[in-house]
Design brief:
Distance between the termini: 31 Å
Bound molecules: D-glutamic acid
Shape: globular
Strand order of the largest sheet: 4-3-1-2-9-10
Structural class: alpha/beta
Strand content: 15-25%
Number of helices: 12
CATH topology of the largest domain: Rossmann fold
Largest sheet: 6 strands, parallel
């Protein structure tokens, strides 16, 4: 019997993480994936640390215990800055010592510095910017680089509520003072922002390198698997992608269809 029985899980507070999951799947279509969006509790960005940790732990448990995932990527920046360390240092060793959880912060910063970035802008939820985790992690990678964080709380509601026509004005207002600081790169530190990466590139007139996590995470995950054959050898290879959400109402179904195509079945996750 094949030892390859385990899936790769991707977790986000909502559906924005599907951009990352889909990009991972297209880079490595052979594996089986389970995506979980906590659509019942999105957005996480304005919640307390305790609440975000509790919601993230519940989601991780579901992916490990109910969906047979041995390797999980937390696509959500807010959950990555809040819950990842505790999940890796306490939850996994106590409950599932052979599973692995990866976040998006360190791979994003590694990619930025590999590209030579030193003056790095960050737009993200208030929670992500104020956590200062990006600032803490960059120091560990290189002392030469610096993060210029700017909370951009209007972007998620605009993206979620078809507010595209206001986007240029709002983005312009957020980006101008950042760009004036002489940035060489700009991290889109929120899963939702992947949907506006072209707009950001256009508005910044390509004067900064815009770093979008759907472009960063797939090669980083591929690299991780090549360095961890003990994990890679557990992963099943039927090319399947299953999509779960904690609330699977009509809006959620429509968005899934928009992102994944009409034949994507959305299953309600109960835990
Ligand atoms: N998915 C979240 C992130 O990447 C954004 C939405 C939220 O606040 O939950 O930070």
């Amino acid at each position: 019997m094949s030892k390859r029985t385990k899936k790769i899980g991707v977790f986000d507070s909502g559906l924005g993480g599907l951009y990352i999951a889909r990009a991972i799947q297209s880079a490595m279509p052979q594996y089986d994936y389970a995506y979980l969006g906590d659509t019942l509790n999105v957005p996480y960005g304005g919640r307390s640390m305790e609440a975000i940790y509790k919601l993230s732990e519940g989601a991780i448990r579901y992916l490990i215990e109910k969906q047979d995932c041995d390797l999980i990527v937390i696509g959500c920046n807010t959950a990555s800055v809040t819950a990842l360390r505790k999940l890796q240092r306490e939850f996994l060793p106590q409950n599932h010592p052979d599973k692995r959880i990866l976040g998006v912060i360190v791979p994003t910063l590694e990619s930025a510095t590999e590209l030579g970035a030193t003056q790095i802008g960050l737009i993200a939820t208030e929670y992500t910017v104020n956590s200062k985790i990006y600032d803490e992690e960059i120091v560990k990678i290189t002392p030469r680089a610096q993060i210029y964080g700017k909370p951009t709380p209007l972007l998620v509601p605009l993206i979620e509520n078809n507010g595209e026509k206001y986007m240029d004005a709002v983005l312009g207002d957020y980006l101008e003072p950042l760009i004036e600081q002489g940035l060489d790169s700009l991290i889109l530190g929120c899963t939702h922002y992947i949907s506006i990466k072209d707009k950001v590139r256009e508005l910044t007139k390509h004067r900064v390198r815009v770093l979008s996590q759907d472009e960063i995470i797939p090669p980083k995950l591929k690299d991780y698997l090549s360095r961890h054959p003990e994990m890679e050898e557990r992963l099943s290879q039927n090319g399947m992608f299953k999509c779960f959400a904690t609330d699977a109402g009509p809006v959620c179904k429509r968005n899934i269809e928009k992102l994944m195509g009409a034949d994507m079945v959305l299953t309600k996750a109960v835990y």
